[in-house]
Write a structure and sequence with these properties.
Blueprint lengths: L17 E15 L4 E2 L3 E2 L3 E19 L7 E6 L2 E2 L4 H11 L9 E9 L10 H19 L5 H15 L11 E4 L13 E3 L12 E5 L10 H6 L7 H21 L2 H20 L10 H17 L4 E4 L5 E5 L4 H12 L8 E5 L5 E2 L1
Parallel strand pairs: 5-7
Antiparallel strand pairs: 1-4, 1-14, 2-3, 4-7, 4-8, 5-6, 8-9, 10-12, 10-13, 11-12
The site of (3R)-3-hydroxy-3-methyl-5-(phosphonooxy)pentanoic acid has 14 residues, from loops.
């Protein structure tokens, strides 16, 4: 396991004048949710997610050596066009990671980024976006220090991504990633995401996630504000303890493939996340009427057919419909027949469990 100091480099054996890297990184969907953090993006509780396969950010980073400056020098393009609004977030990210990548002010960067999912679909691109950027910066660091091990490369990439957006640290690897120290998961740490180290039953092979776009509007509550509301939250301590317990439960479920138990943990986690928001001060309701319509329709369908399909939610109104690959055709038919009507412009995205970031 690496410590923070391992990520502060002391020397580089190579120099590099210019070049370009390109990585694609996926979004991820948490089963046990991260909600609440301490200083420096340290999570208040451990979380676990499925890495996705189709909702990706592709990011190209071109770099040229310059005289070391007082400020970061970078251009930011989104879909090939300059995007000033995105720059402050990148600026903040670079400030946070500079101590771990001390060469950042010695280059001018052109960061060119695009998502495979529709812009303003209400799907947060921060996880995939920060992961893709972190991968590119690690490629540059590896070029400066080729003796770096693969393990170090990926774990530091996740460590850096975490400093951009907490959940981004779970987007570097697949298929199931744990972030945050949990007593019974060997190697789990608050500093970066690790591949889930134990047996995963075949029931979870190619597990499906169909994302129903209920509300594509701007996020009502930023995740920064949301996490903050867990400070002095009346139920925070119980909630954090529950996340540890749910990870224990999932460990048994991943091993024995019991989908009924899986559904209980996953749906309860989603509703707990929203319950935390409803019981904070100020309080929020991030579900929309159609979110509830969908949840009720899933419950009805599941009880009528015994097909193990369930939902989870992020900090918004969209619904992730989760189900095993073996029932894919039936569930897609159900979505077409009964759920599409609740989506904005009938939009949904078919995704499934994936393997993590890839160099292009
Ligand atoms: O990574 P952030 O700070 O945007 O937080 C995301 C938190 C949730 O998506 C709501 C839950 C999670 O674990 O992904």
């Amino acid at each position: 396991m690496f410590s923070i100091n391992d990520f502060i480099p002391s020397f580089y054996s190579n120099t590099l004048e210019s070049g370009q890297f390109q990585w694609t990184a996926p979004s991820n969907i948490a089963l046990v949710k991260y909600w609440g953090k301490k200083e420096n993006q340290i999570p208040a509780n451990p979380s676990v997610s499925f890495t996705l396969n189709n909702c990706m950010t592709n990011t190209k980073v071109a770099f040229t050596k310059i005289q070391k400056q007082d400020n970061f020098s970078f251009d930011l393009l989104f879909e090939g066009k300059p995007k000033e609004e995105f720059k402050p977030k990148i600026q903040k990210f670079l400030e946070r990671i500079e101590v771990y990548l001390p060469f950042l002010k010695e280059y001018h960067f052109t960061i060119d980024t695009e998502n495979t999912f529709p812009h303003s679909s209400g799907i947060a691109s921060s996880a995939s976006g920060m992961a893709a950027l972190a991968m590119n910066l690690m490629s540059l660091e590896k070029a400066l220090r080729p003796e770096m091990t693969e393990d170090y490369f990926y774990q530091k990439a996740s460590f850096l991504a975490r400093l951009g957006s907490g959940s981004a640290c779970r987007s570097v690897k697949g298929q199931v990633v744990v972030w945050g120290h949990q007593a019974n998961i060997l190697g789990s740490t608050d500093l970066y995401g690790v591949e889930y180290p134990y047996t995963i039953h075949d029931n979870f092979n190619h597990f499906q996630d169909t994302i129903l776009l209920v509300d594509k509007g701007e996020k009502q509550v930023s995740s920064t504000l949301g996490h903050d509301l867990m400070h002095n939250h009346p139920y925070a301590e119980q909630r954090f303890a529950q996340a540890h317990d749910n990870l224990d439960k999932l460990r048994a479920i991943f091993e024995n493939g019991n989908l009924d138990e899986f559904i209980k943990v996953v749906e309860s986690e989603a509703l707990t996340l929203h319950a935390m928001m409803m019981t904070s001060m100020p309080y929020f309701i991030l579900m929309k009427p159609n979110t509830l319509q969908i949840i009720n329709a899933i419950w009805k369908y599941r009880s009528e057919t015994q097909i193990p399909v369930c939902f989870t939610l992020d900090a918004g109104a969209n619904v992730h419909v989760l189900y095993p690959n073996s029932v894919k055709d039936k569930v897609l038919q159900f979505i077409q027949d009964e759920l599409v009507g609740y989506c904005q412009n009938a939009q949904y995205i078919c995704d499934q469990i994936g393997i993590g970031a890839m160099q292009l």
